[in-house]
Amino acid sequence: MLGSISSDNFHLCPAIRDKRRVYTVAAIMDPLPAFRWPLPKYDYWSTPFAESLLCHLELCPGLRILDVASGHGIPAFYLAEHVGPTGEVLAIDVSPGQVARARVIQGSQLPWLRFDCMDMRSLPSDLPSFDRITGNLSVMFFRPDRFQAVRGLVPHLEPGGQLVLTFPSHGTFDSLWQRVDQAMIQQGLMKERERFQAYLNERPSASEVRGWLEQLQLKQIDVSEYPLEVATGPGREFLYHPLLRGGFLDDVYECFEDQYLAEEFMVTLSRNIHSFTPLIAQRCVLSGRK
Protein backbone atom coordinates (compact mmCIF):
# COMPACT_ATOMS: atom_id res chain seq x y z
CA MET A 1 0.00 0.00 0.00
CA LEU A 2 2.81 2.42 0.86
CA GLY A 3 3.34 4.88 -1.95
CA SER A 4 0.85 3.19 -4.26
CA ILE A 5 -1.10 5.03 -6.90
CA SER A 6 -4.46 4.16 -8.37
CA SER A 7 -3.97 3.77 -12.11
CA ASP A 8 -7.72 4.17 -12.61
CA ASN A 9 -7.20 7.92 -12.38
CA PHE A 10 -4.53 8.17 -15.07
CA HIS A 11 -5.65 10.27 -18.04
CA LEU A 12 -2.70 9.71 -20.32
CA CYS A 13 -1.82 9.47 -23.96
CA PRO A 14 -1.70 5.70 -24.70
CA ALA A 15 1.69 6.05 -26.38
CA ILE A 16 3.16 7.52 -23.22
CA ARG A 17 1.46 5.01 -20.92
CA ASP A 18 2.95 2.15 -22.93
CA LYS A 19 6.48 3.54 -22.57
CA ARG A 20 6.57 3.49 -18.76
CA ARG A 21 9.50 1.42 -17.46
CA VAL A 22 12.15 1.69 -14.78
CA TYR A 23 15.78 2.67 -15.41
CA THR A 24 17.77 -0.56 -15.16
CA VAL A 25 21.18 -1.73 -16.28
CA ALA A 26 19.46 -4.27 -18.47
CA ALA A 27 17.46 -1.57 -20.22
CA ILE A 28 20.64 0.39 -20.92
CA MET A 29 22.67 -2.57 -22.16
CA ASP A 30 20.00 -4.34 -24.21
CA PRO A 31 20.17 -3.04 -27.81
CA LEU A 32 16.61 -4.15 -28.61
CA PRO A 33 14.33 -1.75 -26.64
CA ALA A 34 13.08 1.20 -28.67
CA PHE A 35 13.45 3.45 -25.65
CA ARG A 36 16.50 3.12 -23.42
CA TRP A 37 15.52 6.03 -21.15
CA PRO A 38 11.75 5.78 -20.54
CA LEU A 39 10.09 7.31 -17.51
CA PRO A 40 10.75 5.26 -14.35
CA LYS A 41 7.81 2.97 -13.69
CA TYR A 42 8.10 3.02 -9.91
CA ASP A 43 8.29 6.75 -9.29
CA TYR A 44 4.72 7.34 -8.16
CA TRP A 45 4.83 11.14 -8.16
CA SER A 46 7.29 12.59 -10.69
CA THR A 47 6.42 10.06 -13.40
CA PRO A 48 2.63 10.63 -13.40
CA PHE A 49 3.20 14.38 -13.60
CA ALA A 50 5.78 13.90 -16.37
CA GLU A 51 3.34 11.73 -18.30
CA SER A 52 0.84 14.57 -18.20
CA LEU A 53 3.54 17.01 -19.35
CA LEU A 54 4.45 14.80 -22.30
CA CYS A 55 0.82 14.63 -23.41
CA HIS A 56 1.05 18.37 -24.10
CA LEU A 57 4.67 18.72 -25.25
CA GLU A 58 5.46 18.58 -28.96
CA LEU A 59 8.73 16.68 -29.43
CA CYS A 60 10.84 16.00 -32.49
CA PRO A 61 14.55 15.38 -33.23
CA GLY A 62 16.88 18.36 -33.17
CA LEU A 63 15.05 20.50 -30.60
CA ARG A 64 16.91 22.55 -28.00
CA ILE A 65 15.19 22.14 -24.61
CA LEU A 66 15.64 23.85 -21.25
CA ASP A 67 14.29 21.64 -18.44
CA VAL A 68 13.94 23.59 -15.17
CA ALA A 69 13.71 22.09 -11.67
CA SER A 70 15.01 18.93 -13.31
CA GLY A 71 15.68 17.00 -10.09
CA HIS A 72 17.36 13.69 -10.85
CA GLY A 73 16.21 13.64 -14.45
CA ILE A 74 12.47 13.03 -14.83
CA PRO A 75 11.80 13.69 -17.69
CA ALA A 76 15.18 15.09 -18.85
CA PHE A 77 16.53 11.68 -19.90
CA TYR A 78 13.35 10.95 -21.83
CA LEU A 79 13.53 14.35 -23.54
CA ALA A 80 17.19 13.90 -24.50
CA GLU A 81 16.54 10.52 -26.05
CA HIS A 82 13.72 11.90 -28.17
CA VAL A 83 15.52 15.01 -29.46
CA GLY A 84 18.51 12.85 -30.33
CA PRO A 85 22.15 13.82 -30.94
CA THR A 86 21.13 16.66 -33.27
CA GLY A 87 19.28 18.28 -30.37
CA GLU A 88 20.31 19.54 -26.95
CA VAL A 89 18.83 19.39 -23.44
CA LEU A 90 20.03 21.63 -20.62
CA ALA A 91 18.56 20.39 -17.33
CA ILE A 92 18.96 22.76 -14.38
CA ASP A 93 18.22 22.47 -10.68
CA VAL A 94 19.12 24.64 -7.69
CA SER A 95 20.11 21.57 -5.64
CA PRO A 96 23.74 20.42 -6.08
CA GLY A 97 22.74 17.03 -4.70
CA GLN A 98 20.06 16.49 -7.31
CA VAL A 99 22.40 17.55 -10.11
CA ALA A 100 25.12 15.21 -8.84
CA ARG A 101 22.66 12.33 -8.66
CA ALA A 102 21.45 12.95 -12.21
CA ARG A 103 25.03 13.03 -13.50
CA VAL A 104 25.75 9.68 -11.85
CA ILE A 105 22.69 8.16 -13.51
CA GLN A 106 23.71 9.64 -16.86
CA GLY A 107 27.34 8.50 -16.84
CA SER A 108 28.68 8.82 -20.37
CA GLN A 109 25.28 8.33 -22.00
CA LEU A 110 23.40 11.00 -23.97
CA PRO A 111 26.28 13.51 -24.33
CA TRP A 112 23.87 16.14 -25.70
CA LEU A 113 22.19 16.23 -22.27
CA ARG A 114 23.81 18.45 -19.62
CA PHE A 115 22.88 18.82 -15.96
CA ASP A 116 23.84 22.14 -14.35
CA CYS A 117 23.24 23.73 -10.95
CA MET A 118 21.27 26.90 -11.62
CA ASP A 119 18.35 28.82 -10.08
CA MET A 120 15.46 28.94 -12.53
CA ARG A 121 14.17 32.08 -10.78
CA SER A 122 17.21 34.11 -11.83
CA LEU A 123 18.54 32.79 -15.11
CA PRO A 124 21.70 34.45 -16.47
CA SER A 125 21.07 37.02 -19.18
CA ASP A 126 23.54 35.33 -21.54
CA LEU A 127 21.68 32.01 -21.42
CA PRO A 128 20.69 31.14 -25.01
CA SER A 129 17.12 30.68 -26.18
CA PHE A 130 15.40 27.30 -26.56
CA ASP A 131 12.73 25.70 -28.71
CA ARG A 132 11.05 24.22 -25.64
CA ILE A 133 11.11 25.05 -21.94
CA THR A 134 9.78 22.34 -19.64
CA GLY A 135 9.48 21.97 -15.90
CA ASN A 136 7.99 18.93 -14.21
CA LEU A 137 6.52 19.79 -10.79
CA SER A 138 8.36 23.08 -11.19
CA VAL A 139 5.79 25.77 -10.39
CA MET A 140 5.67 24.67 -6.75
CA PHE A 141 9.33 25.73 -6.44
CA PHE A 142 8.82 29.18 -7.98
CA ARG A 143 8.31 30.88 -4.60
CA PRO A 144 8.07 33.61 -3.51
CA ASP A 145 6.68 35.06 -6.76
CA ARG A 146 5.60 32.30 -9.10
CA PHE A 147 4.33 34.59 -11.85
CA GLN A 148 7.63 36.48 -12.01
CA ALA A 149 9.49 33.17 -12.23
CA VAL A 150 7.38 32.09 -15.19
CA ARG A 151 7.82 35.53 -16.77
CA GLY A 152 11.59 35.12 -16.45
CA LEU A 153 11.51 31.95 -18.56
CA VAL A 154 9.77 33.50 -21.57
CA PRO A 155 12.75 35.62 -22.82
CA HIS A 156 14.69 32.36 -23.20
CA LEU A 157 12.04 30.87 -25.46
CA GLU A 158 12.46 31.07 -29.23
CA PRO A 159 9.63 32.70 -31.21
CA GLY A 160 7.09 29.94 -31.79
CA GLY A 161 8.67 27.91 -28.99
CA GLN A 162 6.59 26.03 -26.45
CA LEU A 163 6.50 26.37 -22.66
CA VAL A 164 5.10 23.38 -20.72
CA LEU A 165 5.10 23.22 -16.91
CA THR A 166 3.37 20.95 -14.38
CA PHE A 167 2.48 21.32 -10.71
CA PRO A 168 -0.09 20.09 -8.15
CA SER A 169 -2.74 22.78 -8.42
CA HIS A 170 -5.20 24.22 -5.94
CA GLY A 171 -7.58 21.41 -5.07
CA THR A 172 -4.82 18.85 -4.47
CA PHE A 173 -5.62 16.84 -1.32
CA ASP A 174 -8.54 19.14 -0.49
CA SER A 175 -10.26 16.44 1.57
CA LEU A 176 -7.20 16.28 3.85
CA TRP A 177 -6.94 20.06 4.18
CA GLN A 178 -10.63 20.33 5.06
CA ARG A 179 -10.16 17.73 7.80
CA VAL A 180 -7.09 19.58 9.12
CA ASP A 181 -9.04 22.83 9.17
CA GLN A 182 -11.96 21.22 11.02
CA ALA A 183 -9.64 19.68 13.62
CA MET A 184 -7.88 22.99 14.21
CA ILE A 185 -11.24 24.70 14.81
CA GLN A 186 -12.40 21.95 17.15
CA GLN A 187 -9.20 22.17 19.18
CA GLY A 188 -9.11 25.97 19.27
CA LEU A 189 -5.83 26.21 17.35
CA MET A 190 -6.57 29.63 15.91
CA LYS A 191 -3.01 30.86 15.37
CA GLU A 192 -2.09 27.59 13.67
CA ARG A 193 -5.24 27.77 11.54
CA GLU A 194 -4.39 31.31 10.44
CA ARG A 195 -0.99 30.14 9.22
CA PHE A 196 -2.59 27.10 7.60
CA GLN A 197 -5.11 29.22 5.70
CA ALA A 198 -2.29 31.43 4.43
CA TYR A 199 -0.58 28.30 3.09
CA LEU A 200 -3.75 27.13 1.34
CA ASN A 201 -4.41 30.53 -0.23
CA GLU A 202 -0.85 30.69 -1.58
CA ARG A 203 -1.32 27.66 -3.85
CA PRO A 204 -2.09 28.65 -7.47
CA SER A 205 -5.16 27.36 -9.27
CA ALA A 206 -5.56 26.32 -12.90
CA SER A 207 -7.51 29.49 -13.68
CA GLU A 208 -4.80 31.63 -12.05
CA VAL A 209 -1.98 30.14 -14.13
CA ARG A 210 -4.06 30.55 -17.28
CA GLY A 211 -4.18 34.23 -16.43
CA TRP A 212 -0.38 34.25 -16.16
CA LEU A 213 0.02 32.90 -19.68
CA GLU A 214 -2.54 35.35 -21.05
CA GLN A 215 -0.76 38.25 -19.33
CA LEU A 216 2.51 37.09 -20.93
CA GLN A 217 0.70 37.11 -24.30
CA LEU A 218 1.52 33.50 -25.09
CA LYS A 219 -0.46 31.79 -27.83
CA GLN A 220 -2.21 28.42 -28.08
CA ILE A 221 -2.68 28.42 -24.32
CA ASP A 222 -3.84 25.19 -22.75
CA VAL A 223 -4.29 24.53 -19.02
CA SER A 224 -5.52 21.07 -18.06
CA GLU A 225 -5.90 19.08 -14.85
CA TYR A 226 -5.67 15.31 -14.41
CA PRO A 227 -6.66 13.62 -11.12
CA LEU A 228 -4.29 11.23 -9.40
CA GLU A 229 -5.29 9.13 -6.39
CA VAL A 230 -2.67 8.57 -3.71
CA ALA A 231 -3.43 5.56 -1.53
CA THR A 232 -2.33 5.33 2.10
CA GLY A 233 -2.98 3.48 5.32
CA PRO A 234 -3.44 4.89 8.84
CA GLY A 235 -0.86 5.86 11.42
CA ARG A 236 2.80 5.86 10.48
CA GLU A 237 2.04 4.83 6.91
CA PHE A 238 0.22 8.12 6.45
CA LEU A 239 2.57 10.25 8.56
CA TYR A 240 5.69 9.02 6.72
CA HIS A 241 4.18 8.45 3.29
CA PRO A 242 6.93 9.21 0.72
CA LEU A 243 4.59 11.37 -1.37
CA LEU A 244 3.25 13.33 1.61
CA ARG A 245 6.03 13.75 4.16
CA GLY A 246 8.86 16.03 3.12
CA GLY A 247 6.34 18.27 1.40
CA PHE A 248 2.60 18.49 1.93
CA LEU A 249 2.42 17.24 5.53
CA ASP A 250 5.45 19.30 6.51
CA ASP A 251 3.47 22.40 5.56
CA VAL A 252 0.99 21.50 8.32
CA TYR A 253 3.77 20.92 10.86
CA GLU A 254 5.24 24.31 10.03
CA CYS A 255 2.00 25.99 11.13
CA PHE A 256 2.84 25.02 14.72
CA GLU A 257 5.41 26.77 16.89
CA ASP A 258 5.19 23.83 19.31
CA GLN A 259 6.30 20.75 17.37
CA TYR A 260 5.22 18.40 20.18
CA LEU A 261 1.72 19.77 19.76
CA ALA A 262 2.04 19.41 15.98
CA GLU A 263 3.01 15.75 16.34
CA GLU A 264 0.11 15.06 18.72
CA PHE A 265 -2.28 16.80 16.31
CA MET A 266 -1.08 14.84 13.29
CA VAL A 267 -0.95 11.47 15.07
CA THR A 268 -4.57 11.92 16.13
CA LEU A 269 -5.52 12.86 12.58
CA SER A 270 -3.71 9.84 11.14
CA ARG A 271 -5.79 7.37 13.15
CA ASN A 272 -8.90 8.07 11.12
CA ILE A 273 -7.85 8.37 7.51
CA HIS A 274 -11.36 7.42 6.36
CA SER A 275 -12.40 10.97 7.23
CA PHE A 276 -10.26 12.35 4.39
CA THR A 277 -9.58 9.53 1.93
CA PRO A 278 -9.40 9.03 -0.97
CA LEU A 279 -6.60 11.53 -1.41
CA ILE A 280 -6.76 13.11 -4.85
CA ALA A 281 -3.98 15.24 -6.34
CA GLN A 282 -4.60 17.48 -9.32
CA ARG A 283 -1.86 17.28 -11.95
CA CYS A 284 -2.04 20.65 -13.66
CA VAL A 285 -0.31 21.22 -17.01
CA LEU A 286 0.09 24.72 -18.40
CA SER A 287 1.23 25.15 -21.98
CA GLY A 288 1.64 28.05 -24.37
CA ARG A 289 3.68 29.26 -27.33
CA LYS A 290 5.63 32.47 -27.73
Give an account of the 3D structure.
The chain folds into 2 domains: 5-169 and 204-229 and 282-289, Rossmann fold, CATH 3.40.50.150; 171-203 and 235-271, no CATH class. α7 packs antiparallel against α8 (190-202). It is 37% helix and 20% strand. It is globular, with a radius of gyration of 20 Å. An 8-stranded mixed β-sheet has the order 1-7-8-6-5-2-3-4, with helices on both faces. The chain is an alpha/beta fold and 290 residues long. The N and C termini lie far apart (43 Å). The longest helix is centred in the middle third of the chain and has 13 residues, at 174-186.
Largest beta-sheet characterization:
8 strands, mixed
Q: Which residue ranges are poorly predicted, with pLDDT under 50 across at least 5 consecutive positions?
A: 1-33
Number of contiguous helices: 12
Q: State the end-to-end distance.
A: 43 Å
* Percent helix range: 25-40%
The quaternary organization reads as: single chain
Overall geometric form: globular
Indicate the CATH architecture of the largest domain.
3-Layer(aba) Sandwich
Number of domain units: 2
CATH class of the largest domain: Alpha Beta
Output mean pLDDT.
Answer: 88
The CATH fourth-level homologous superfamily of the largest domain? Vaccinia Virus protein VP39
The CATH topology of the largest domain comes to: Rossmann fold
Question: What would you report as the Rg, rounded to the nearest angstrom?
Answer: 20 Å
Helical/strand content category: alpha/beta
The beta-strand count equals: 8
